[in-house]
Amino acid sequence: MKKKISFNKKFKKIIFFGFIDIIEDLIGINKKLNYKTLIITSSNQYKNFKSKKNIKIFDKINTSFENYLKEINKNEDTLFISLGSRLIFTKNIINNICKNNLVNFHASRLPFSRGGGGFTWRILQNDRIDNQIVHMVTENIDMGKILMYEKNLFPKSCTKPHEFEKFSNQKMISFYEKFLKNINNNFDFDLTNNPKYIGSYYPRINQFDNSYLDWNLKDLELINMINSFEDPYCGVTTFLNNKNIKVNIKKAQLHGGELTNHPYMAGIVIRHDNNWIVVSTSGKNCLIIEEVLDKNKNNILSKVKEGDRFFTPSNLLEKNFNKRIFYNSKGLKK
């Protein structure tokens, strides 16, 4: 039998840890349902807030942080919600201060796609299923018992990270409101285990260190790599003709209307059609590319010539793999 849980206490306040783009929408839902909202965020995430009201900044868990939470929750009337928080919560925080009323929202089919990296990893894997989840927070990242989930298919039109994120965010808004209404109605949540014997964890990604394009990838892998670093990111990074001309590629799609390729042809511009170029890959399809951006983000497509070749030096390709990216409360960890 599944274990059930209900939040029997009538919460009066909600504390958000972290930041997400739709936080103002969630604050609006809190207000509609008569919850007061307080926010604890990091100094790096604080810059993203439009309104600076009711926000406290903590970059680490210390005595001041614990005392603030104790004061907020002295009547045990607070629901704590993690939204991309940079803090790793301790057992003492979870059990003794938050009184086991700390949950996290995550947009994947946990235990798959735990960790960071957002939709870049999902696009690389060709994952077309959105899944909104709220789960209990434990000391192990994204491994707490699942309270509630909701699956949806991404529209065919979603190819870029910002398109996936926009769709997922809209689903989260309605999912979040359902969750709070269930709490108000003393709903019995079915606690579902987050199994340890399956799943995946992916680290953070940095668009400047991890976006070098390997032209030896097969065509589907190649277009997924390009799409995964599309807007809002810089685009995949490569070079044109020599290693002094560093460029970023955007607005690409697979195209099968040419003659056969060979891996030795990968990266060669085989035709320039004014508004786009056709580039060979190591697979059966070519790429149509509409944007080749220089270091100033200018589109230099008109300067690309037929017979030019895109390539990425092997020592830079290794940067995709030989450095693990970490973010802390102050941003990218050097």
Features:
334 residues, alpha/beta, Rossmann fold, Methionyl-tRNA Fmet Formyltransferase, Chain A, domain 2, 2 domains, seven-stranded mixed β-sheet, six-stranded antiparallel β-sheet, 26% strand, elongated
Query: What is the CATH superfamily of the largest domain?
Result: Formyl transferase, N-terminal domain
Specify Rg, calculated over alpha carbons: 23 Å
Strand order of the largest sheet: 4-3-2-5-6-8-9
Percent strand equals: 25-35%
Distance between the termini: 47 Å
Number of domains: 2
Question: How many E-type strands?
Answer: 19
Count the DSSP helices: 8
User: From the 3D coordinates, which CATH architecture of the largest domain would you assign?
Assistant: 3-Layer(aba) Sandwich
Overall helicity: 10-25%
Q: Per CATH, what is the topology of the largest domain?
A: Rossmann fold
Model regions low in confidence, pLDDT < 50 over at least 5 residues: none
Compute the average pLDDT. Answer: 92
Described by the principal axes of the CA atoms, the overall outline is elongated
Order of helices and strands: EEHEHEHEHEEHEEHEEHEEEEEEHEE
By secondary-structure content and strand pairing, the structural class works out as: alpha/beta
Main CATH class of the largest domain: Alpha Beta
Instruction: Outline the biggest β-sheet.
Output: 7 strands, mixed
